[in-house]
Design brief:
Blueprint lengths: L12 H17 L5 H4 L8 H9 L18 H14 L4 H17 L2 H12 L5 E4 L15 E4 L3 E8 L10 E7 L12 E7 L6 E7 L5 E14 L3 E2 L5 H12 L4 H4 L2 H11 L5 H29 L5 H26 L9 H12 L10 H11 L4
Parallel strand pairs: 1-4
Antiparallel strand pairs: 2-3, 3-7, 4-5, 5-8, 6-7
Helix pairs in contact: 1-4, 5-6, 5-7, 9-11, 9-12, 10-11, 11-12, 11-13
Bound molecules: flavin-adenine dinucleotide.
Length: 383
């Protein structure tokens, strides 16, 4: 049984000092940026905004300076993320690279890979996507069938990925593929990770899947005899499962797991205004109190990361509670304001309509609710 504990954490003065700087940056760059765009939260993209963040040193903030990283603390990074998410800033272009592909390459990549890929990520110029899910292999990731075979010069990849967010704009994918046939005795063996150039590799086809909100966010990605060089392998051949588990832990520990619906709370408060009746005030108060608790738990994760711990169980708990919170937000906003979601109208209506459609997906991305609860139960020694 894992130790479950949320060490109370405080943001140090240097992190709080950064907050003012980030707010000024956001006010300058997002003047007049509409509520419905802010509602996209970390799904909204703007390459120029990513470059501007890179120029300020706010991508790869905790990475070593020798690769272009900021060498700053997890708590400073927390403040930048928190402010960006609270403002609904369009951070999605570089999001995956900053959150997980960069840390993965720093941990498992070769020195050559680090030098080649990390600096462009920190400049906000290089975007990554995650090639894990396949048709019939989502929660049961170990059952993937996309395979890579060794060739004289590298590897030949065949198969299909699905639900690949932003594959159409990403420069690279880090894909989990099978390099050995599945072994029924060890389902996690024989998997490897590859860094695939999405723009240059022949035999890669990207097909859009439109989501319920009408956006092209997801894609199917097909590999037909796609040849990649030998140095596209990330980490150890056959060690993909351990690596991907580490990568998923990077994906589950941040404040984005409870702030995705923040714009709706903001618009709700604006809509109700200063004349809230007792029921409205109580409803908003409850939402604010939950938000504040989740924030404390999330800061605690950042504090533990800063002191070199790997609080995977605590991060899974924050993700599960945070996702429930952000997913319930449209229903709560409806109950409090007494307005049904509808297209058109003012900022509140538009944000509520968008959130009502988007929130369904929050409990799927990064591992479904049932899978997260399974991880928590295992951590608690219950299964
Ligand atoms: C917004 C969004 C972005 C995404 N982006 C990416 C991406 O960039 N790259 C990528 O690779 N994937 C991505 N995904 C895919 C996502 O990881 C999968 O949808 C998710 O892992 C679930 O897999 P699935 O859709 O195949 O559902 P399934 O695994 O088929 O699950 C169907 C249902 O069965 C339940 N279930 C499955 N197994 C169990 C079990 N053992 N015990 C209890 N219940 C179970 C699940 O909880 C779920 O409710 C994204 C998904 C979303 C919604």
């Amino acid at each position: 049984m894992e130790d479950i504990r949320f060490t109370p954490g405080l943001l140090p003065p240097e992190a709080e000092a950064l907050r003012a700087e980030v707010r000024t940056f956001i006010a300058d760059h997002l003047k007049g940026y509409p509520g419905v765009k802010r509602a996209k939260s970390w799904s909204g993209a703007d390459p120029e905004f990513s470059k501007a963040m890179g120029a300020r040193g706010w991508i790869g903030m905790t990475w070593p300076q020798e690769y272009g990283g900021g060498g700053r603390s997890f708590l400073e990074r927390y403040v930048v993320l928190e402010e960006m998410l609270a403002a609904g800033a369009p951070v999605s272009a570089h999001w995956v690279a900053d959150r997980q592909s960069g840390p993965l390459l720093l941990k498992f990549g070769t020195e050559e890979q680090r030098r080649k890929y990390i600096p462009a990520i920190t400049r906000g110029e290089s975007y990554f996507c995650i090639g894990m899910s396949e048709p019939n292999s989502g929660s049961d990731l170990a059952s993937i069938r996309t395979r890579a075979e060794k060739t004289a010069d590298g590897w030949r990849i065949n198969g299909q990925k699905i639900w690949t967010s932003k594959a159409h704009t990403a420069h690279h994918m880090i894909a989990l593929v099978r390099t050995q046939p599945q072994d029924p005795k060890d389902r996690h063996a024989g998997l490897s990770q590859f860094l695939i150039d999405m723009k240059e590799t022949k035999g890669v086809t990207i097909r859009p899947i439109r989501n319920m909100a009408g956006e092209q966010m997801f894609n199917e990605v097909f590999f037909e005899d796609a040849e990649v060089p030998a140095d596209a392998l990330v980490g150890t051949e056959g060690g993909g499962w351990g690596q991907v588990t580490t990568e998923l832990a990077f994906e589950r520990s941040g404040p984005e797991r409870y702030l995705s619906s923040y714009q709706l709370l903001f618009e709700l408060v604006r809509e109700i205004g200063a004349d809230a009746g007792p029921a409205e005030a109580a409803g908003i108060g409850r939402l604010a109190a939950h938000l504040s608790t989740l924030r404390q738990m999330s800061i605690s994760i950042a504090t533990m990361l800063e002191s070199g711990e790997t609080p995977n169980l605590a991060a899974a708990i924050v993700k599960e509670l945070g996702v429930a919170y952000e997913q319930d937000m449209p229903g709560k906003a409806h109950d409090i304001a007494g307005i049904s979601p509808r297209m058109g109208g003012g900022d509140f209506d538009q944000v509520m309509a968008y959130m009502t459609m988007a929130a369904r997906s929050f409990s799927l991305r990064g591992g479904t609710r049932e899978i997260m609860r399974g991880i928590i139960a295992r951590g608690l020694g219950l299964r």
